[in-house]
TrEMBL record:
It is an enzyme of class 3 (hydrolase). It comes from the Eukaryota. This is Serine/threonine-protein phosphatase. Residues 8-23 have a biased composition (Pro residues). Residues 1-24 are annotated as: Disordered. GO terms for molecular function: metal ion binding; protein serine/threonine phosphatase activity. It comes from Dipteronia dyeriana. It catalyses: O-phospho-L-threonyl-[protein] + H2O = L-threonyl-[protein] + phosphate. The keyword Hydrolase applies. Residues 157-162 form the Serine/threonine specific protein phosphatases domain. Belongs to the PPP phosphatase family. Pfam families: Metallophos.
Length: 428
């Protein structure tokens, strides 16, 4: 007989206890850490045990309204480029996160893996919270709750998908309408209003610039001759490629970010540049003709931008494995990050935080990409530590909310006329 002993199987684990629902808004209007953690647990549980149409019973529309209104008031008061300096000390770390695209369970893992936001742990999220994933609304609301709870420790920047055009194409609008039914249009409008308040960029410790897409052009401002006391500035743009030059932080601070869709033409081009631009290995600054909006910039522009503003790093996002597959001149996104430019003054990094992306794909072959986040530490916060991670499996069954078999995977071939229409609506 064999002496091999077989260990008894572990007893089956009981299913997680259901949280108390519906969620209630705190009586003092200020979500505590306990409330935010309960929100995350509740969304995780409900995504695994309830149909999406039950979300209004989990988070009633009046609680949604309070959450979004409170967050919007905070976000709209922040400048276009938030400076993260106050509170940073020798015990602080800053975590930078790229696109998460409605992949709630991967976001929850990331927050736990990095360590939740706290007095000494800052977070900067680089946009694209919604679209293409099945839980964009829950993802966005979790981040808004953290913003309300720790407004000086959690910073939410805008991505190109925080827009009316993208959310109408890539699923978020239909997700909201499906989950909230008769109140869906109201919930969607409130989300759009909150998107308009999201800042465009951040500067961390005076050394690191982060934005969803990247850098931006200069806009020439000419003071016309008018009688004293009557101000009249007109903005002159020359579309010729060779006239493009890097913009200043002062110009960024004056851009009008409260638009449903960033304009691709006209006077207010800086938001479109910040949200839609891409790096290139070819020197120079040129229109991003592939996307039809924003810029392409080369290593020389990265060097000039870093030197001009005494920076060491640019951390941008915006490109996942699907986008990089079409750009053989740049590195792929298999591990969640790439170092695209490495010059005398510093580096340009692309960071993507949605693993196994996109969640829904027309082909059986998947990218199986890892995602990543960056940790910045004192004293200078300019030496990035990359943390790659894999997707949480199994995911609960999700619904795409968009025709992923016929909609292009990356943000190319944009319907610019639709974007122009939404810009016109915003202005009226």
């Amino acid at each position: 007989m064999s002496d091999l002993q077989v260990e008894p199987a572990p007893p089956p684990q009981p299913p997680p206890l259901p949280p108390p629902v519906p969620l209630l808004w705190p009586s003092d209007g200020q979500p505590s850490l306990e409330w935010v953690h309960n929100l995350m647990y509740t969304f995780d549980w409900s995504s695994r045990n309830l149909p999406p149409t039950d979300l209004p019973f989990v988070l009633p529309v009046n609680v949604f309204d309070s959450l979004v209104l409170t967050a919007s008031k905070i976000l709209h008061k922040e400048p276009n480029c938030v400076r993260i300096e106050e509170g940073l000390d020798q015990d602080s770390t800053v975590v930078v996160v790229g696109d998460v695209h409605g992949q709630l369970h991967d976001l929850l893992f990331l927050l736990k893996d990095a360590g939740f936001p706290s007095e000494n742990r800052f977070f900067v999220f680089n946009g694209d919270y919604v679209d293409r994933g099945a839980w964009g609304l829950e993802t966005f609301l979790v981040l808004l709750a953290w913003k309300i709870c720790l407004p000086q420790r959690v910073y939410l920047l805008r991505g190109n998908h925080e827009s009316k055009y993208c959310t109408s194409v890539y699923g978020f609008e239909k997700e909201v309408l499906s989950k909230y039914g008769g109140n869906g249009k109201h919930v969607y409008r409130k989300c759009l209003g909150c998107f308009e308040g999201l800042p465009l960029a951040s500067i961390i410790a005076g050394a690191v610039y982060t934005a969803h897409g990247g850098i931006f052009r200069s806009v020439s401002v000419i003071q016309s001759k008018r009688p004293k006391g009557k101000k009249n500035r007109r903005i002159v743009l020359n579309p010729e490629e060779n006239t493009l030059s890097l913009g200043s932080l002062e110009e960024l601070s004056k851009a009008r970010r409260s638009v449903l869709d960033a304009p691709y033409k006209g006077l207010n081009l800086i938001p479109g540049d910040v949200l839609w631009s891409d790096p290139s290995m070819k020197n120079g600054l040129s229109p991003n003709t592939e996307r039809g909006i924003g810029l392409l910039w080369g290593p020389d522009c990265t060097e000039d931008f870093l030197k001009k503003f005494n920076l060491k790093l640019i951390i941008r996002s915006h490109e996942g494995p699907d986008a990089r597959e079409k750009r053989p001149d740049l590195a792929g996104m298999d591990n969640g990050y790439t170092i695209d430019h490495d010059g005398e003054s510093g580096k340009l990094i692309t960071l993507f935080s949605a693993p196994d992306y996109p969640q829904f794909q027309a082909t059986e072959d998947r990218y199986n990409n890892k995602a990543a986040y960056i940790v910045l530490r004192p004293p200078d916060f300019d030496n990035p530590e990359f943390r790659s991670f894999e997707a949480i499996f199994p995911r609960p069954e999700g619904y795409p909310y968009y025709d992923f078999e016929n909609v292009i995977d990356s943000d190319e071939e944009l319907d610019l006329a639709s974007m122009e229409t939404t810009v016109t609506v915003t202005a009226t």
